[in-house]
């Protein structure tokens, strides 16, 4: 039973890694719309991972009171982030093939700003 579980876990990981490799291969900032969209998704995922690492590290270093303040601030930011970027993308290309590029580009931009804001908590 344990061997089967390990086998299936290995297979799932293998598929996940292959899919990630494929999405990176598809990224070409000067390529087709689909390739540019793949780059935007990749770039957002990269900064989003940085944000999450920084947030966890910061939370571990704060007092309970400040953790609560930061948690509420982060929740409020997350609540407005996606709707803001959806509106921005819809205003430019609602339903078009360029929509993912605009949406994920916006997500990347506002997440970079949020990372800078989180760095201010350290001071």
Verbal overview:
This protein is an all-alpha fold and 123 residues long. The chain has a single domain, classed as Up-down Bundle (Substrate Binding Domain Of Dnak, Chain:A, Domain 2), CATH 1.20.1270. Helix content is 87%, strand content 0%. It is built from 4 helices and no strands. The longest helix is centred in the middle third of the chain and has 30 residues. The chain is elongated, with a radius of gyration of 18 Å.
Q: Identify the CATH architecture.
A: Up-down Bundle
Number of strands: 0
Shape: elongated
N-to-C span: 52 Å
Radius of gyration: 18 Å
Low-confidence stretches: 5-10, 19-23
Please, how many helices?
A: 4
Q: Helical content, roughly?
A: over 70%
CATH class: Mainly Alpha
The CATH topology is Substrate Binding Domain Of Dnak, Chain:A, Domain 2
The profile of the biggest β sheet is: none
Helix/strand/pairing class, anyone?
mainly alpha
Mean of the pLDDT scores? 85
Order of helices and strands: HHHH
Number of domains: 1
Strand content: under 5%
What descriptive keywords fit this protein?
mainly alpha, 0% strand
Quick overview of this protein structure:
With 123 residues, the chain is mostly helical.
């Amino acid at each position: 039973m344990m061997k089967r579980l390990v086998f299936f876990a290995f297979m799932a990981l293998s598929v996940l890694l292959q899919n990630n490799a494929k999405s990176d291969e598809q990224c070409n900032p000067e390529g087709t719309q689909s390739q540019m969209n793949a780059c935007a998704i990749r770039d957002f995922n990269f900064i989003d991972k940085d944000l999450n690492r920084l947030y966890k590290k910061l939370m571990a270093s704060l007092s309970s009171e400040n953790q609560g303040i930061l948690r509420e601030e982060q929740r409020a930011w997350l609540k407005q982030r996606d709707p803001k970027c959806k509106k921005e993308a819809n205003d430019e290309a609602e339903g078009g093939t360029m929509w993912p590029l605009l949406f994920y580009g916006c997500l990347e931009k506002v997440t970079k700003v949020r990372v800078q804001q989180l760095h201010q908590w350290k001071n």
